[in-house]
Amino acid sequence: MRIGIVGAGVQARRRLAAFRPDDRLTAISALNSGDAARLAARYRGEAVSSWLEVVQRDDVDAVIVASPPRSHADIGIAALRAGTHVLCEKPLAATSEEAAAMTTAAATAGRVLHCGFNHRLHPAVVRLREFLASGAFGPVISAMAVYGHGIRDGYESEWRCDPACVSGGQLMEQGIHLVDLVDSMLGPVDRVVAHVGRSCTLPAGLEDEAHLMLGLSGGGVAMVRSSLTQWRNRFLLEVTCRKAILRVEGLGGSYGDETLIIERRTDGPFTTELLEFRGDDQSWRREWQQFHDLVAASAHSATADDAGLRSIVIVEAAYRSASSGQWVKITDGQ
Amino acid sequence: MRIGIVGAGVQARRRLAAFRPDDRLTAISALNSGDAARLAARYRGEAVSSWLEVVQRDDVDAVIVASPPRSHADIGIAALRAGTHVLCEKPLAATSEEAAAMTTAAATAGRVLHCGFNHRLHPAVVRLREFLASGAFGPVISAMAVYGHGIRDGYESEWRCDPACVSGGQLMEQGIHLVDLVDSMLGPVDRVVAHVGRSCTLPAGLEDEAHLMLGLSGGGVAMVRSSLTQWRNRFLLEVTCRKAILRVEGLGGSYGDETLIIERRTDGPFTTELLEFRGDDQSWRREWQQFHDLVAASAHSATADDAGLRSIVIVEAAYRSASSGQWVKITDGQ
Amino acid sequence: MRIGIVGAGVQARRRLAAFRPDDRLTAISALNSGDAARLAARYRGEAVSSWLEVVQRDDVDAVIVASPPRSHADIGIAALRAGTHVLCEKPLAATSEEAAAMTTAAATAGRVLHCGFNHRLHPAVVRLREFLASGAFGPVISAMAVYGHGIRDGYESEWRCDPACVSGGQLMEQGIHLVDLVDSMLGPVDRVVAHVGRSCTLPAGLEDEAHLMLGLSGGGVAMVRSSLTQWRNRFLLEVTCRKAILRVEGLGGSYGDETLIIERRTDGPFTTELLEFRGDDQSWRREWQQFHDLVAASAHSATADDAGLRSIVIVEAAYRSASSGQWVKITDGQ
Amino acid sequence: MRIGIVGAGVQARRRLAAFRPDDRLTAISALNSGDAARLAARYRGEAVSSWLEVVQRDDVDAVIVASPPRSHADIGIAALRAGTHVLCEKPLAATSEEAAAMTTAAATAGRVLHCGFNHRLHPAVVRLREFLASGAFGPVISAMAVYGHGIRDGYESEWRCDPACVSGGQLMEQGIHLVDLVDSMLGPVDRVVAHVGRSCTLPAGLEDEAHLMLGLSGGGVAMVRSSLTQWRNRFLLEVTCRKAILRVEGLGGSYGDETLIIERRTDGPFTTELLEFRGDDQSWRREWQQFHDLVAASAHSATADDAGLRSIVIVEAAYRSASSGQWVKITDGQ
Questions:
Q1: E strand spans, chain A
Q2: Model's pTM, two decimal places?
């Protein structure tokens, strides 16, 4: 495919590194024009001066929206209207209203709108999803999930701490991965109660800590912690089923070896099965392949963009719960 | 000391096995008179026909109340009024009103009323408490705790599933250990939101699953899971501080090796310290020594019986939250 | 059975604690007559003044020889000649000549001579043996085994450091468990090369460190380390087969949770199976049951006493190798 | 530096990826001229038709010898005589005679000859070496090391199984890393006894299994296993000192997270410290920097090329021991 990219940061580089041999960068724009120029040179694309140019070019089949969240809706909707497919980084938009408008635009245009939830494609998570879908271990009773890392020096001056760029803190930016995994694998989520806090010196309104209890429509509960005070990168997703406990720990790299642990229900001795997925992070490459498949199916990717919308709906409900001190219901569709 | 015991089940046997050489069983009673007789024979005490006899004997300095919770208040108050000290198994009573009455009775009688929270005396927990108290790792930001085991065959016919014996399910009976640890080490707890459920076939009103978020007066949050569907005995108490994460895993025996893990905040490499406390469970012996010390101090043990009362107050608040769908405040004193 | 015991130390107490309900201590003797008297009182047997009395009494069906190794042969042979069965602690005797004489005495008398290798009865080892015997994982290629603990204060004044009591150091006393396991499960062993050393201040001739390479008749090799400088109790037995690696780690208690780990040969992801055997050490009870079974079969236990003899033959060969600097062949029978 | 490379396989690619910004590939040759051409194109160097051209060019300051071992001596000596510095992959040469000749050539030419033992630069190994050098944990008593992986499909047809390319099997090719680490960190090694075997279908004379006992001049012993039947990539280097046990496990990537574990000698509870070095393998980059430093010092790198020679001397002694069934002494210098 011929790809345009808006943004030239970490995510743009990750996406470029995951290109298939038949992909080609045609145009790239970014607020930091120097970064855009460098990537353009390296990948033999053209650096252009505005995202509008990127989405309106004839030689762009799909646009990767890798700019800060507050710009997603404008860019995504323009790209979809221009007839390109869109892979947009999470969160899909700054608000659920914007996310819904993007989803509608994709449906109207008949183009793929895919929200980048690469964690779904981590091999341990893929395997977990397969086990759960198979029903081999019985229904889900409870879950516990942790995603966090230690705040880094200078974090306060990054765009993630700029209310002009983002509409939420650690929960909206990173915890949303867990929200999506719980909702799509264990849910749907039908209500939430939450506590959000600021332990580090972030700007008002941007939480660095979130603790959620997510009610699952099947009756179970998922406890979720998303945090900037984890002090080392950590990913945990543990699911208690009727016949076993399944646990994903680690994502490789700085998160430690990626492992799926299955503790089967027994009278003893306790039997545990470990699946270790060592080596490089393949999730970006796999998600990109998935995007290709969606485009090839020429179909509007209902599942995928619902995920982008639903995850924001749930995070917003969590924010409301943190204010009201009550469980907040997730209303249908949103 | 000369000890009377009410009850002849697992707890009675554990308490007897933890006696000091200068302790002597003088009287024991139990609903199951055969069990009482057997223990009396083995430990050279006298089996008597009612708990009233136990608490009223002249040769009893202290009474261990190891009968089901609904009988605790009557027995405990009678014993305190008779001038004996009391070590009462958790939960201290069936309700917070009863627990408050016991606490008052102890104060009036000037006798020790100690609620049996032996988990406080597990060496890894003791060390964790010391670390937290030292302030070396900074203030507490967040905590996560899991206590559970798999439901055993025939559990439905045990007294723990009999509403005539107990006033709550897994949370009141086992999760209360975590509630006490969080409240006494990380708290005080000032509010709670909870979900309780029944995944196994327990009688109505007796939960086998509880998920709690406990608000800490210092601003942090503790997420707690107490469950009968853990499938293997598990104990986890993880505390995130400003400078480190501290984690107790295992309690020895069927819970796996008891370990205190300290993950220090670093830029890398990640440094982790493990303290392994292998060997037999010493908590019963240490708690018994603690009771001796309290008695020796001839003091009313304000701390200890407050713990018995407070933990029930919090559990009851959790039950109310599970009904109302709201955070429930822990009111002062109770 | 009616049991006589020679010795009143740790082993005597362990054996008594493992008695079946139908077993009865009739007579016990020990160099330390106070210890013998105490055990006699506790278990309602009679303390007698010499081991000769124990083995010659009419009311003794079986004798447990739990005295230091240099006394084993005299006591064991006398007991067998007196018509009792014998369970003798390892090493079976001080020398292979003595061990062979005991074995001959048992055959002549038609009585059971069982050498106490309780490690065979640890559940993880039992399971490992079953897996190996099943052939499911293909032939054994290599093995690695570690058994050790840290030297304790005052060790130098224990009988294990007294050449009048023992005929070898850590290898003969503790490493012999590994030698037996390798020989009986992975072997037979047909040659050995060894290094023995003294890192701590033990008497001349009593090694505190032994490193062995054991040649297996099937072509593989086992590397063994037995040591007093392990600094914490450790047990490891790892076997590489054609299709998997199997590893026993821990023995419970101060050795850490007992675990059998199976790493299957795969192209990835790596799959590992853990079997955890938590709880008390059952090996003494199971070995005692095994002894009962042997006696009940009224058979001379060829397997068992061969093990006692063979293990000493191999240890002696290791000592010779350590002197000569060469591989030493294990000659047939011994 | 201006770099010439002989060889265009995995090692050549690794070395190129570790170049500093001020390094430049000028010439590359390989038996597989297509591979050389591809690397030349990618790194903007020139593909030439013979290694002789590479070593004789004017625009080459240093030569990386990344061809099979039997070609190392010819290439390395020619390069050194031509006045270039040499980084040569391990084993330094096919025989100790060749390795000695290379070492002599480097001394004569006054050029750096560095044998590529990148494992020394893994951060956990670096930290282990520092701890040992500090003396903080007392003298080394014993060591145990394992390095292995599972044989891959088609291995038999790789150059590692071609006696025209290599002079040894898994020990010479991979185990030599452990030999070097033991010799340089724990040694020097003064004698060896070994068993080598062929469990897989490799050509005669090329072992896929080696078990070594290495005598350390300080009195301790190191047991080493190098194997193609480990079934998953594994690296273990455990050192028992007087006051602690130190253990490197994993090398990152397919070997699992790289960890340095320190088990301190205590009376209990057991204290263990873990240092985790997560993320990418930095050893190649660090070794390359080390080579730069050696060149900058304009010094003949005595230490480094001794290592290349010594490690082969020890491996050859191990082969002789495997034939003779005796300990073989490592003679001085070689």
A1: 2-6, 24-29, 46-47, 62-65, 85-89, 113-116, 140-150, 189-197, 209-216, 221-227, 229-241, 244-249, 258-264, 270-277, 328-329
A2: 0.91
